[in-house]
Structure formats: C-alpha cells, structure tokens
Amino acid sequence: MQAFYASRIHRIQKWSLCLCCCLCLLCVRTSVLKAEEATVEKCVEYFEEILETQKMRQILQHGANELMARFDRQEITKIELDNTLHVWYIVENDLKEKVTALYDIAYEKKCFDEKLNESR
Question: What is the pTM of this model?
Fold first, then answer.
C-alpha cells in the first residue's frame, strides 16, 4: 500500500513541477509582451514629437520664405529682414537639435528596428 501512495505522490510531484514550469513560461511571455508594448508606446510618443517638431520647422520655414518674398517686393526693410531671420535662425537651430536628439533616442531605443515594427 505504501508503494502505491509513494507512486501517486511521485506522479503528483512530477505534474506539479510541470505545471510550475508552464506557469513560469507564461509569466515570462507576459512580461516580454508588456515590455514590448511599453516600448511601442514610447516609440509612438517619439514619432509624434518628431512629427510635431518637423511640422513646426516647416511652418517657420514657410514664414521665413514669405518674409524674403516681402523683402523682394520691398515691403520690409533690410534691417527688419535681418532681425527677423536672425530670430528664425536661432529657433530653427534649436528645433533642428531637438529633432536630431529625438531621432537619436528613437534609434537607440530601436524604434526603427523591423522586429519592433512587425510586432505592431
């Protein structure tokens, strides 16, 4: 009778060990998926900020072009043009540095990797 119970206990232990392993694998997979989801969300934030910054640069560039056209039509003076373009240049430079830094971070976080893009 003892051998019968010992056999049953041994079988239960093996199944318990198997179930624990399966549970561990499930937990690891869930953790990986959550981490990947967080990475995707962060990458989306980087992409949105990059697009917003580039849009602002485009708007300001259009304004600078319009300003130069107004100067060509002699609607503003050279001093007004130079002063305004000086401010535009400073702002454009700051925005360019910002977008470059965002791209660098996004590349570092592997936001442009095909594996991450495939998971989306």
Answer: 0.65
